[in-house]
Amino acid sequence: MSDPERAISLKLGEIAKQAASIQKSLDLGIVKQAQEAPKLTKSLDLNAITEATQRWRSAFVEPQVLKGIQDTMVVRPFLPPSFTTVISDWQKNSQAIAESIQSIGKAWQATVQSSLAPFQQVFARIAEERKKAELVEQTGWLPHYTTPFYLIDVEESDVAAANEAIATHYAEAWDEVEGQFLENLDGYQIDNEAKATFREALSAHRHGLYRAVPRTLFPEIERVASNEIYGGKRTITEQTPKGKLKAFGITSLPGVSEAARDLPAGDLLSYEFGMNLFTKMEEHLYARVGEDAAEISKFANDPVPNRHASLHGIISYSSRQTSLNALMMTDFMFHLISKMKSYIADEGEGDEDGDVAVKES
Asked: pLDDT tens track of the chain, all 361 residues?
């Protein structure tokens, strides 16, 4: 193999390793890896990869070809070949290099395609769901398996029209929506008390008792979490930097987000728009609302109820939209807790201070 060919092969070998690294990085193994998927979908551009490959070939491959051709044509004083020999060598070498480049180019293209092909369908689905979710979230509703996407033109991105379609559906097709909630509720690994409480919240929503819904559901989420995650405890302890133990309540579900991030991603992605709702839980649902007027206003303008603001009387959530969003988030939390049960260690296997622990799978 000539020096130009060897250099090309080495360079493409490096790129093949990069492609393999990309493939490995796209393995959506656990939740915290799946959270990176939107960033990957935004950065992945097959056209850009093709363009970059072409630029690389023009900057590296073609100059090497030219150099190889020039090297064969140089008449060296200490080895004067005949003109016929020079032409013959040039023809052989240029043809060999051209064939080598063509072969390497095909191999590189096949490597890229084989590395990315398994993920194109996944990325397409994630990108489409993200687009749908973004439009729904702009209306103030949560993206959910009950969302009537068949009534929404995602391509038009008309927020007002989407909001009207969603609101009308939830008002006029409540029997259907309630049935969807109840069907999923039956499958959750939670106790009968939790299921009865959720049914009462559905009934309250049906009769327009919207204030009652979040005030009923937030304490129930806490009760279920206490039984299923914290071993029946209402407080847990943590060690301070000075080595002392500090006790605090479980009202904001401490440790749940961290534990949930180590769950298999499929446990979260099996719930439609689970990643969106998980993010909402982390960033909003259990955030502490202070006394600053601007901060209170920010939370009041978000139609998704906040646990601290609701139960401490800071904000009154009294609309159909806030009530239904509370039902959706509770439904998601019951799903999440159900999935976590098989991975959360029991009190005897957990940390001595009662922290949330995840079993090794």
From this structure: 566 556 656 655 665 555 555 444 444 455 665 565 555 545 545 555 555 555 545 555 455 545 554 554 444 444 455 555 655 665 566 666 666 666 666 666 666 666 666 556 666 666 777 788 899 999 999 999 999 999 988 888 799 999 999 999 999 999 999 999 999 999 999 999 999 999 999 999 999 999 999 999 999 998 998 888 766 556 666 666 777 766 556 555 656 777 777 777 778 778 899 989 999 988 999 898 988 999 999 999 999 999 999 999 999 999 999 999 999 999 999 999 888 876 764 334 444 444 444 333 3
Cα–Cα distance, 82 to 65 (Å, whole number):
23
Contacts of 262 (CB under 8 A, 6+ apart): 30, 31, 32, 343, 358
Q: How many CB atoms lie within 10 A of CB 258?
A: 12
- Read off φ and ψ for residue 195, nearest 5 degrees: -65, -40
Q: Do residues 253 and 344 lie in contact, with contact meaning Cβ atoms separated by under 8 Å?
A: no
Q: What is the DSSP letter of 109?
A: H
CB environment 169-204: b (16+ within 10 A), e (fewer)? bbeeeeeebbeebeebbeebebeeebbebbebbbeb
What are 19's two structure tokens? 């492609």
Closest CA to 64 of 36, 29, 101: 101
Place of tokens 């993010």: 279
pTM for the model: 0.65
C-beta neighbour count of 85 within 10 angstroms: 10
Cα–Cα distance for residue pair 275/70, rounded to 1 Å: 57
Q: Which residues share a beta bridge with 358?
A: 344
Strand partners, 264: 30
